[in-house]
Specification:
- The structure is a single chain.
- By secondary structure, the protein is mainly α.
- 33% of the residues are buried.
- The longest helix is centred in the N-terminal third of the chain and has 23 residues, at 19-41.
- The termini are far apart.
- Helix content is 70%, strand content 0%.
- It has eight helices and no strands.
């Protein structure tokens, strides 16, 4: 059985009420959760007070409370974890009373090699708001951005989670980046 199949088996057992499955699952997925957390925190300002271990722990607490999720597979689990981490970071930024963007548009780079800057927190909030606007009329494109940008999932992993082709992910990713760039420059 591959690691992916083992994770899927444990997720289904957990979904079906086997609490021991969660105990077995967490050591297997912890390294990938750490990787996702580092990926997301790498896009934040360099002196961010939230550390990757704390982000993983907070995400873990929220994942354990996910009782209504019909876990499909490993990729689905990591997609949900990435979304939770994004929400944690946005909530954290908002709770720190960071000044919201003014008349000047916040520029957000959606490339995988995005460089952290001092204004990353304000950019994260601006991106979160723009992403919510995108989701209002094209949920799939917004999910592609969440999974690729915030979750660090590959095109193939994103396609697996969304049950679409990798070519569709690539097209949606390109189109969503253009839309978000335009939306952020309007603000």
């Amino acid at each position: 059985m591959t690691a992916s199949q083992d994770v899927t088996r444990l997720l289904i057992a957990w979904r079906n009420g086997d609490s021991k499955a969660l105990d077995e699952l967490m050591p297997i997925v912890y390294r990938k959760l750490q990787q996702i957390a580092r990926h997301q925190l790498g896009r934040e300002r360099h002196n961010h007070t939230l550390q990757s271990k704390a982000l993983v722990n907070e995400a873990y607490i929220r994942l354990v409370d996910q009782r209504n999720v019909r876990w499909q597979n490993r990729a689905h689990f990591f997609a949900i974890a990435a979304q939770l981490m994004r929400r944690i970071l946005v909530d954290y930024a908002r709770s720190r009373h960071v000044a919201k963007r003014g008349g000047v548009a916040a520029r957000v780079t959606l490339d995988e090699e995005a460089v952290a800057s001092a204004s990353r927190t304000a950019e994260l909030i601006a991106l979160d708001e723009a992403l919510s606007d995108l989701a209002a009329f094209d949920q799939r494109k917004a999910l592609v951005v969440e999974l690729r940008f915030f979750g660090g999932l590959s095109v193939e992993e994103t396609a697996e989670v969304l049950k679409i082709s990798p070519n569709t992910v690539t097209r949606d990713w390109s189109s969503a980046k253009a839309w978000l760039h335009q939306a952020l420059n309007k603000k």
